[in-house]
Amino acid sequence: MNLTDPGTEQLLSSLRSRGYDSAGGSFRTGRPDRTTIPLTTRAGLPVVAKLYPAGKGEGVFTNMIDVWRSSFGERRRPPGLPRPIEYLAEQGILIMERVDGVPLAERPHVEPSLLDDAVCLLASLHESNAKSTQMRSSKGIVKSIRRKAATASTLAPEFQEAFGTAAEALDACRIEDQELVASHGDFSPRNLVHGSDRLVLIDWDRFQTADPARDLAYLGIWCWAGKVRQRERSDWSVLERTVAHYDSLRPQAAVRKRLPFHIAAGLIRIAHSVVELWPAERPIVPRLLQEAQYQLRMTS
Q1: How far apart are CA 15 and CA 172, in angstroms?
Q2: What is the pLDDT of residue 233?
Q3: DSSP state for residue 177 in the 8-state scheme
Q4: pLDDT, position 261
Q5: Distance in angstroms (rounded) separating the CA atoms of residues 175 and 182
Q6: Architecture of 6-98 per CATH?
Q7: pLDDT tens across 168-214, in order?
Q8: Which are the contacts of 57, defined by CB distance < 8 A and separation ≥ 6?
Q9: Within 10 Å of residue 161's Cβ, how many Cβ atoms?
């Protein structure tokens, strides 16, 4: 963010009035539609301010409070997420603990042992007593994907047929819901912060009760799509390793047979995000949608 911008200075002035000072610098990893600012409290504690569009941040803060009070949060050693501090409703700013570490997405190479630790963290969330008032069933996923396909088709009409075909294929392969757990909803290296003695999940915008396969699939999708974005050879080795480790921790979940549906849904979701947020990367959209349909064909 531009610290010399008048709007930014007004925002920082408002934060200073609440006892927060700019820590300087910025975060390498983030979304173009979310502003995050490193801050310190008057006591010198590191925190993060995240700015949300009107009406969006309060629900995220509620999600974090609910998870923090669960067995995944303050009672876990160490806690599985940063401590939520407060939500400034007038400014739409969520304040939370700033963990000393970097997202796995910023590491040049993620060691297999770190992937295993990430899966252990995920299994801990899925086994926790954290509750969400929002449920994301397979029917709800299909509805959401149809909305995203329609939005993407409006923004990029050249992909209308491809998005429509992928959404129809997903609907045709909709699975029956089985175990539903506390689901992060955006489980990826971007949202896994690794510190000297702690691995935490950040960005609880999409926290819901959902199929555990949804989180596992998204980790693999994010890594696969990252290779596509970098024009490197892509494979599903990360997903294969993480699913194998998850199976060893929670064999009763039996996630494998439901993975293709969630992989396809996640690929369409990423294709929509590319169209909406990263238009320069739109040339990869056909590849994402083709892979989504390929994954669904594997179920037949």
Answers
A1: 49
A2: 93
A3: P
A4: 97
A5: 19
A6: 2-Layer Sandwich (3.30)
A7: 999 999 999 999 999 999 999 999 999 888 999 999 999 999 999 99
A8: 50, 51, 87, 89, 92, 93, 94
A9: 11
Joined together, the tokens standing for residue 49 give 């301010």
- For residue 47, the 8-state DSSP code is E
The residue type found at 141 is I
Domain with CATH 3.90.1200.10 in the chain: 103-297
pTM listed for this prediction: 0.92
- Phi then psi for residue 31, to 5 deg, are -110, 150
Task: State residue 299's pLDDT score.
Answer: 73
- Ranges of the chain with pLDDT below 50: 1-4, 6
Residue span(s) of the chain under CATH 3.30.200 come to 6-98
Please tell me the distance from the alpha carbon of residue 69 to that of residue 238, in angstroms, as a whole number: 31
Counted residue by residue, the chain has a size of 300
CA distance 215 to 217: 5
DSSP 223-277: HHHHHHHTT----SHHHHHHHHHHHHH-GGG--GGGHHHHHHHHHHHHHHHHHHH
Rounded distance, CA 176 to CA 178, Å? 6
Hey, what amino acid is at 40?
T
Of 171, 183, 184, which is closest to residue 140 (Cα–Cα)?
A: 171
What are the distances in angstroms from CA 276 to CA 152, 155, 206, 269?
Answer: 7, 7, 18, 11
Q: In the prediction, which pLDDT does 9 show?
A: 76
103-297 belongs to which homologous superfamily? Answer: Aminoglycoside phosphotransferase (APH), C-terminal lobe (3.90.1200.10)
Q: Tell me what pLDDT residue 2 has.
A: 45
